[in-house]
């Protein structure tokens, strides 16, 4: 399941992050790509230990934590550190698959990839995130503060930026629910169960759906 989530960051938060990124040193993005992805990666990323970045990192961390849709769709168990990336005019990231296991000491299996867009689409041309699945290629260019989550098992790319600068923050998440179709099933069930609660309250039907939901998590969750 590919899911777009709007308004993850407030305009104020976006402004603070923008100022932090202005004060941050960006380096060649090649450092964090697999040997095959390196061949097609041409972007920049913020130095991980850059001081001005700390506030920006904690703003995004908090925003992910409070976002009910993100939590429901991804069911995060562990997450790679947030990576702020930048594509200046002419930069791109060609078709690639993300590494399955990331990190040296705290290893994370990438089940879900996410991009949180930080630049308004009106400020740059190109730079679409294109995700390929069995139904074809899907291009995304979201509002600043909106995010997309998609299975890390997909080939994807960032189209060349032909004008302006594209800023984003990306990360990879290991989910309690490893299988993407199981995650989607739980997401749908949870959505339906909550709609029933809104309409009818805590009925027997709601209780039954909640039981199925909880027991499927028991069946599938990896702790
Ligand atoms: O910038 C993006 O939207 C995605 C970048 C990406 O695919 C990656 O860093 O692996
Ligand atoms: Fe990627």
UniProtKB/TrEMBL annotation:
Domain of life: Bacteria
Pfam families: 2OG-FeII_Oxy_3, PKHD_C
Cofactor note: Binds 1 Fe(2+) ion per subunit.
Gene3D superfamilies linked: q2cbj1_9rhob like domain (2.60.120.620), Rabenosyn, Rab binding domain (4.10.860.20)
Residues involved in 2-oxoglutarate binding: 166
Any GO MF annotation of the entry: iron ion binding
Keywords noted in UniProt: Dioxygenase, Iron, Metal-binding, Oxidoreductase, Vitamin C
Cofactor field: Fe(2+); L-ascorbate
GO biological process: DNA damage response; intracellular iron ion homeostasis
Record-listed Fe cation binding positions: 96, 98, 156
InterPro entries: Oxoglu/Fe-dep_dioxygenase_dom, PKHD_C, PKHD_hydroxylase, Pro_4_hyd_alph, Pro_4_hyd_alph_FE2OG_OXY
Domain Fe2OG dioxygenase: start-end pairs: 77-175
PROSITE patterns per the UniProt record, alphabetical: FE2OG_OXY
This protein's name: Fe2+-dependent dioxygenase
Lineage: Bacteria, Bacillati, Cyanobacteriota, Cyanophyceae, Oculatellales
